[in-house]
Amino acid sequence: MAGTETPMTDTEAAMALHREPHGGLVVALRATLKRDLLLLLRRRSEVLNPLVFFALVITLFPIGISPDPELLATIAPGLLWVAALLAALLSLDTLFRGDYDDGSLEQLLLTPQPLAALGLAKVAVHWLLTGLPLALMAPVLGIMLSLPAGSYGVLALSLALGTASLSLIGAIGAALTVGLARGGVLLSLLVLPLYIPVLIFGAGAVQAAILGDGVAAHLAILGALLAVTLMFAPWAIAASLRISING
Amino acid sequence: MWAFIHKLGSPKWFYAISARLQPWFWAAAALLLLVGSVWGLAFAPADYQQGNSFRIIYVHVPAAFLAQSIFVSMALAGLVFMVWKIKVADMAAAMMAPLGAAMTFIALFSGAVWGVPTWGTWWMWDARLTSMLILLFLYFGVIALRGAFASRDSASRAASVLAMVGVINIPIIKYSVDWWYTLHQPATFTVTSRPTMPVEMWLPLLIMVLGFYSFFIALTLMRTRSEILRRESTKRWVRDLAAEER
């Protein structure tokens, strides 16, 4: 019985070996997306903490500067953007940390699928559970800072577009520092200067909406920045992860 | 040609070749800096608008040029190291980073000093000063990342990746800061359109720029040579060299 089956299993195994790298990318991407979403949704505090931080920082400013609505309205676009940027930055450290500690990052490196694509899937989940909630929450905090009417939609949209670039750029820094025991401050030192263009055009979009100028140009440039980072960042993330694991 | 480049990639040959090149660059740097600074500071005519305070450009402009070129050459060296695994390129990149940060600081500081008589204040959020400040932070990031790793090989590769990411970002940062500045242009006196410089003014500037570049090359060669000795200290040829010296 076993003797007759042996050639069959051999060819099957050979075919399976042959087949796996081809159809595998979509399967692997879907598996990574599902696994990361599940992991983050089960650790709700990690999703909620950046949002609470965002609200807290926004609360500090009226206390620290002045509760005057007119003054707050003039600085609100920049404040909301800077606070959201810092909240997104704080959440970066957990992006690869858990996977690094339990060894699943090494398994990710060993898969036959390209690491850049899998890294992109992880970043997409990160944006979905930090960038997008921050963008949706920003208009509520905008009301508290008496942000002028008519700019709420642009605020949410610019944050949604901008935080996607922030997650991608930040993931490079997170991948570079994941192997270091205390990489937190270093991570912000590496990533913050690279965030400046996104901040300029993001806060600029909200400002333009308040002044009644066209916001299409700002949003288009934010989109262009996202396109450029989408093109380069996955490769840098993959190279950085390899350095952190093999080093 | 290729044989020469391959030889340059080996630490031993680089050490030998740079020994011959180094004195020429030091001599050029000393001569150019001396001529340039004496000409620029003593003989060039004073600016009709800014008086003698304009003379700070003879330090400011070369330092600013060098600050940007050093970052680009650091990223190029990083690329060479990542693609061809040439260790000398990484040693050079490691030695360039502090010099680049120092040049950025000199450019910022001389800009601030120039700002006192011109703008009446030490600091303005001027587009050029702001992008220089961001460049300084980028340098700090590369230096800090290299220092954070325990293993030298990971440190080298991480710093190379970060330098390459930074060099892609520098033009984006520069243009976005320019754009931001034109939107928020403060209503104070700024010197944006300088009158075209006469020859007696820009010729010493050119000499100073060349002098700064020669100084950078000479110093990088010297520091890379000592870094080679430090990293290759267990190699036979370095031991032989040390034995000869003794």
From TrEMBL, chain B:
It is a multi-pass membrane protein. It is found in: Cell inner membrane; Membrane. Pfam families: Cytochrom_C_asm (PF01578). It comes from the Bacteria. GO terms for biological process: cytochrome complex assembly. Residues 13-184 form the Cytochrome c assembly protein domain. InterPro entries: Cyt_c_assembly (IPR002541), Cyt_c_biogenesis_CcmC (IPR003557), Cyt_c_biogenesis_CcsA/CcmC (IPR045062). One of its GO terms (cellular component) is plasma membrane. Its main location: membrane. Keywords: Cell inner membrane, Cell membrane, Cytochrome c-type biogenesis, Membrane, Transmembrane, Transmembrane helix, Transport. Required for the export of heme to the periplasm for the biogenesis of c-type cytochromes. Belongs to the CcmC/CycZ/HelC family. This is Heme exporter protein C. The lineage of its organism: Bacteria, Pseudomonadati, Pseudomonadota, Gammaproteobacteria, Oceanospirillales. The gene is ccmC.
